[in-house]
Amino acid sequence: MATVSRIEWTEMTWNPVTGCRKISQGCKHCYAERMAKRLHAMGSRRYVNAFAPTLHQDLLDVPRRWKRPRVIFVNSMSDLFQDDVQLDFIKRAFATMRACPQHTFQILTKRAERLREFASALPWPPNVWMGVSIEDARVIDRITHLQAVPAAVRFLSCEPLIGALDRLPLAGIHWVIVGGESGPKARPMKQAWVDSIHRQCVVAGVPFFFKQWGGKRKDLTGRTLHGRTFDEMPARSVRAAA
User: Fold this and answer.
1) Which domain does 89 fall in, by range?
2) Which of 93, 132, 157, 196 has its CA 20 to 30 A from that of 106?
3) DSSP character string of the chain
């Protein structure tokens, strides 16, 4: 199950795992859960379990079929490092990523402690970017665990940003994405929170990507900040190696 993505910072999504379990306030109005419920109602065979964690063994090798270099978000509909996904399955996903150096794989997790626990058992080729979600200061310790992971690119997704993050530890972080929550129950994001993160990125020399303001209709609120669009990406792109 792979599709062209509308997510601004990637090109494709690859979902060998679907479904997840909520663990923090960033999960409260999960877009993937809403989408999974719709797909379940439509009879999609990949969502027969709705949003319950489900492993799709037959999808693990899909990226090997793509010859043209692509930027791929791994598990946009799940979390590869959740407890329901065993280490052996994660290793197989990483084996596929290592076998496809023409692609750039972007992995995002909220299970930072489990990521750190498994990191030494996994290969970390330069085309695998590893990130953690940081929605507010209550989960800022996830960054410490990410900093211990030997990924070529480590990034933060501050989305949905639901609180101030005025003291981000950015040592060893190569990219920061910021975005507001979207959907029918979207919680508001304050501009002061965004400006603070942007200033910290400028000082630290970290690329800053502003994804969206969010809201019930994100198409109406847009994604410009102070009249600009920020689409900065890590300087160490591996796509050139393809």
Assistant:
1) 2-241
2) 196
3) -EEE---TT-SEEE-SEEB----SGGGTT-HHHHHHHHHHHTT-GGGTTTTS-EE-GGGTTGGGG--S--EEEETTTB-TTSTTS-HHHHHHHHHHHHT-TTSEEEEEES-HHHHHHHHTTS---TTEEEEEE--SGGGTHHHHHHHTS--SEEEEEE-S--S---S---TT--EEEEE--BSTTPPP--HHHHHHHHHHHHHHT--EEEEE--BS-HHHH-SEETTEE-B---S--SGGG-
Q: 141: pLDDT confidence band, cut at 50, 70 and 90?
A: very high
Query: Residue 237: is its pLDDT beyond 70?
Result: no
Structural domains of the chain, count: 1
User: How high is the pLDDT of residue 77?
Assistant: 97
pLDDT, the chain, mean: 95
